[in-house]
Amino acid sequence: MKRFIILAVALFTAAAVYAQPRAIGARFGSGLEFSYQHFVRNADFVELDLGFELPLNQINGAALDFSATAIYDFVFAQPHWTSKGTWAWYAGPGATIGGQVSDGEGSFLIGTGGNIGLSYTFWFPLELSIDHRIMFGFNSRPDHHFYIGGYLIPNFSVRYRF
User: Is 10 helix (H, G, I), strand (E, B) or coil?
Assistant: First the structure.
């Protein structure tokens, strides 16, 4: 009986996870990120991004940031601006880890922050969004230990929703 209850709970959990909508796509701004969204409850979602960024102070290509970011976004408004599609304002906290390669030296980054954005999901499976994300934290590089990223450039995302 105990095995049956554990199996039933596992099956119901798996069904609930896979029944939630998801989206996959790209995020553009100061770099390029592969983006995945998993909707958790109501319209709230978890966003996972993997990407590369060219820091603004190193436009000549001497530095490159790479990171993995996870954000939990709360949808706080869904205005009805159009008869088709869905609009959503969202914001949420998150964390990032990554690295930076500059002048042949590498460093490790860890930070926290958040974002705020607006998305539009069409009546067909396409989502467009614009957001602003800022992350700050610590860098293992000896010449500057503080890291701040994304503070000037808004990001534009295109995702396929399934």
Answer: helix
Question: How far is residue 109's CA from residue 21's CA, in Å, rounded to a whole number?
Answer: 31
Spatial separation of the C-alpha atoms in residues 99 and 109, rounded to whole Å: 5
Antiparallel, parallel or unpaired: β 22-28 and 63-77: unpaired
pTM, two decimals, is 0.78
What token pair was written down for 75? 């949808």
- pLDDT at 56 > cutoff 60: no
Q: What are phi and psi of 13, to 5 degrees?
A: -65, -45
Within 10 A of 73 (CB to CB), how many other CB atoms are there?
A: 26
Q: What are the two backbone dihedrals, phi and then psi, of residue 85, each rounded to the nearest 5 degrees? A: 80, 175
At 129, the amino acid letter reads S
Instruction: Pick the more confident residue, 43 or 129.
Output: 129
Give the span between the Cα atoms of 142 and 156, in whole angstroms. 33
Q: Which amino acid is at 39?
A: F
What does the pLDDT look like over 86-120, one tens digit per residue?
Answer: 999 999 999 999 887 776 778 888 999 999 999 99
